[in-house]
Amino acid sequence: MPYAGHLRGIIGVVSNTAQQIEHAIAGSGRRLTGPRRTLAEALLTLGDHFAAEELLQAAPGVGRATVFRTLRMLQESGLVCQVVMDDGHTVYRLGSEEHHHHVICSECGAVADIASTRLEKALGAIAVETGYEVDAHRLELYGRCPDCRAARASAK
């Protein structure tokens, strides 16, 4: 899927390395096995966002269960985040460890991380208003990125 590079700057460039990913695996209390090392390297070749099936293909010889367990482990460490696209399918992307949400282009599929203290305050206010103790939340915004909007405007 294409990526509008200008969006990535919203919370900073993600610059994970295979070593950082390997460190997260080792830090989770799990052994850094050969298959997990292969996954760390494969993650860096997949681009901005990828499906689990693409990771499976990028790491031949690594078992399906290992791929999904490792993705879950990396999500828990904050190095990988899960994104639900506007058509409902799930992709993963290397992310920052900072809490964030996503804005997704409905045309080209670009995904950008967004962090907003105002948004977090609003979510906290909702918890107070409802009386819920919120354990987790997910927020994804869908629309058209500046590149797709510009392309649409120039086509008119």
Characteristic terms for this protein:
Arc Repressor Mutant, subunit A, alpha+beta, disordered N terminus, 15% strand, 156 residues, Dna Ligase, domain 1, two-stranded antiparallel sheet
Note down, in words, how this protein is organized.
By secondary structure, the chain is α+β, with helices and mostly antiparallel strands. The longest helix has 14 residues, at about 65-75. The chain contains six helices and five strands. The protein has helices spanning about 20-25, 35-45, 50-60, 65-75, 115-130, 145-155, and strands spanning about 80-85, 90-95, 100-105, 110-115, 140-145. It folds into two domains: about 15-95, Winged helix-like DNA-binding domain superfamily/Winged helix DNA-binding domain (Arc Repressor Mutant, subunit A, Orthogonal Bundle); about 100-155, Ferric-uptake regulator, C-terminal dimerisarion domain (Dna Ligase, domain 1, 2-Layer Sandwich), CATH 3.30.1490. Residues about 1-15 have low confidence and may be disordered.
